[in-house]
Write a structure and sequence with these properties.
Layout: H1 2-22, E1 37-42, H2 49-52, H3 56-63, E2 66-72, H4 79-88, H5 92-95, E3 102-104, E4 109-111, H6 128-134, E5 138-142, H7 168-181, E6 185-192, H8 196-202, H9 207-230, E7 238-242, E8 248-249, E9 255-257, E10 267-271, E11 275-280, H10 284-292, E12 298-302, E13 321-325, E14 330-332, E15 341-342, E16 356-359, E17 367-373, H11 377-385, H12 396-399, H13 409-441, H14 447-452
Parallel strand pairs: 1-6, 1-7, 2-17, 5-6, 9-14
Antiparallel strand pairs: 2-16, 3-4, 7-16, 8-15, 10-11, 11-13, 12-13
The structure holds 2-acetamido-2-deoxy-beta-D-glucopyranose (NAG) (8 copies) and zinc ion.
Length: about 450
């Protein structure tokens, strides 16, 4: 008993060593026969919706897989920057999609959600679907931002032109069809606009509307599982469901009106709220001074003074002055509140964080993690499909515990604890027996009976 206990302890310790070694991102044990990966994003799915609303299908999904309660996403917590961070593992300053509206001062080009097809904006990074195709596999995508753009001189064969009118069922139907008819599809991405859209229109505090839309989203997760099951993919492929950012409530009582602080002709706005990109048209120090003093719930930064933790400084597309509103505050030039819910704020705010759930042969079952960074997803995905990751800002070590193949510190610790307890119990049992044997040798009425008992552990009478 004791010997086997120590043996287990030794095994547990070697498990710990092994886990350190597998933390190496360059190790690709999954190889070429690794199963395909499907990445799904429900836009604007705030992490704590999971605590406030009911999700029977999502719960079914992660109870047989992994749930990560919240992801720390990247600044600005907007749709395009974060969708690109998920698939590149880079902060916005390093992948170049800095906002959903951008201006390039060198080429004088403009970027917006309606005008996003110019490769110029995307080519500062290599998204995972390009690496997948460069590795000789195929990638497929339905509406994921950037997947219909020719990036690094690659255009996907299986892709959609962006069209919000294409239903979830149609996007999903095409994805599963591509994955089943072409076995070389190694990576697929699926995007859906809700609950972001309703969050903006009604505000996340409107529980009536949020209950409605989140029930709909959970229904789509049910549909996803059903469709994967029907096509034989369920349980065979790895599936990750996540989002780009959260959502917070705005109010007409929380407006920051720039026209109250600065002459309109003295600056140009590239992007406005809750993070404004400002180009001064007059002396920059005057413009900066007026904007700095504009409102206690808005911070102004000169480009070089943007805090390092935001990773939002080193890129030519970041404008000379950056304004950042406090949570729930809206920046306007003049006029009223544009929408009741918004995101884009500081990425340390819990309301800006999305969640992540995963299912499939690579993932533990019924495993929960409190959080990791959204840039950590990229090295995880590269590991899952067995391709080499590009240089990135994520860490495989943060996420590896979600995988069945990884010996985790926590697991080894738990095993070690169990073994420790067993050793202590064994020791006590032995001591107890020794003491009992001593008692036996003392003259007592039933001593003989005990001695006659043929070696059984428990004395019959005592
Ligand atoms: C671990 O990573 C380093 C570079 O980060 C690489 O040089 C080394 O070969 C890797 N080791 C293994 C075992 O993959
Ligand atoms: C880009 O946007 C700015 C500001 O709205 C505008 O003045 C400029 O003409 C646009 N440039 C192009 C090339 O469309
Ligand atoms: C872009 O790809 C095409 C084929 O897809 C190839 O003919 C062309 O040479 C490539 N251009 C560059 C600059 O790599
Ligand atoms: C693929 O999407 C198109 C809409 O673009 C739709 O008409 C078609 O039915 C979809 N295919 C499947 C298999 O769902
Ligand atoms: C939620 O939105 C609906 C539809 O706009 C509206 O009728 C209702 O008053 C809102 N509820 C709250 C609590 O704001
Ligand atoms: C998959 O389909 C089988 C047979 O219809 C069913 O028993 C099972 O519950 C389904 N699993 C999921 C996750 O939908
Ligand atoms: C800056 O603010 C001052 C005082 O409110 C105002 O007089 C001045 O016109 C403003 N300057 C600009 C460039 O907006
Ligand atoms: C993020 O990764 C890129 C690519 O390796 C690198 O250039 C950049 O310095 C990294 N950023 C930080 C803050 O480490
Ligand atoms: Zn979004």
């Amino acid at each position: 008993m004791q010997v086997s206990g120590y043996l287990f302890a030794v095994i547990a310790c070697s498990g710990l060593t092994l886990s350190v070694q597998t933390g190496n991102q360059t190790r690709l044990e999954s190889g070429n026969d690794s199963p395909p990966l499907l990445l799904v994003s429900f836009d604007g799915f705030r992490a704590d919706y999971l605590n406030k609303y009911s999700f029977p299908n999502l719960e079914k999904f992660y109870s047989d897989g992994v749930l990560v309660h919240e992801l720390t996403n990247v600044f600005t917590t907007k749709t395009f920057p974060n969708h690109y961070s998920l698939v590149t593992g880079l902060y916005a300053e390093s992948h170049g999609i800095l906002a959903s509206i951008m201006y390039d001062p060198v080429t004088k080009k403009n970027f917006s959600i309606q005008n996003d097809r110019d490769p110029f904006w995307w080519n500062e990074a290599t998204p995972i679907w390009v690496s997948v195709e460069q590795s000789g596999y195929r990638a497929a995508a339905a509406m994921w931002p950037g997947t219909n753009v020719n990036i690094q001189n690659r255009t996907l064969k299986y892709t959609f032109d962006y069209d919000p009118k294409v239903t979830f069922q149609e996007r999903l139907g095409n994805i599963t069809q591509w994955m089943t008819t072409d076995k070389s599809v190694k990576f697929a991405a699926l995007y859906w606009e809700e609950p972001d859209r309703s969050g903006h229109i009604y505000g996340p505090d409107n529980s009536t509307e949020m209950t409605r839309v989140l029930k709909e989203v959970d229904g789509y997760i049910g549909l996803l599982m059903e469709q994967l099951n029907k096509t034989g993919l369920w349980g065979k492929i790895n599936v990750i469901i996540t989002s780009d950012h959260g959502m917070t409530q705005c109010s007409p009582q929380r407006l920051i009106i720039l026209d109250n602080c600065i002459i309109p002709s003295s600056y140009m706005v590239v992007d406005l709220t809750p993070v404004a990109a400002i180009i001064p048209l007059e002396d920059i120090s005057t413009v900066y001074k007026n904007l700095s003093a504009c409102h206690i719930h808005m911070k102004a930064y000169l480009k070089d003074d943007v805090p390092d933790r935001l990773h939002y400084k080193n890129n030519g597309r970041i404008q000379p002055i950056l304004l950042v509103a406090d949570e729930g505050w809206t920046i306007v030039k003049n006029g009223g509140l544009p929408r009741l819910g918004d995101h884009g704020y500081d990425n340390t705010l819990p309301s800006m964080h999305p969640f992540l759930a995963a299912h499939g042969p690579a993932f533990r079952k019924g495993y929960k993690m409190s959080s990791f960074n959204s840039v950590d997803l990229y090295p995880l995905m590269c590991h899952l499909i067995g391709i080499a990751p590009m240089a990135n800002n994520g860490s495989f070590a943060h996420v590896r515990c979600a995988l069945v193949s990884e010996q985790c510190g926590e697991l080894a610790l738990a095993v070690g604890l169990v073994i420790g307890v067993l050793i202590i119990l064994t020791t006590f049992t032995c001591l107890f027996k020794l003491m009992k044997n001593r008692d036996v040798s003392s003259p007592r009425p039933f001593a003989r009976l005990e001695l006659e008992d043929d070696g059984d552990d428990e004395p019959l009478l005592e």
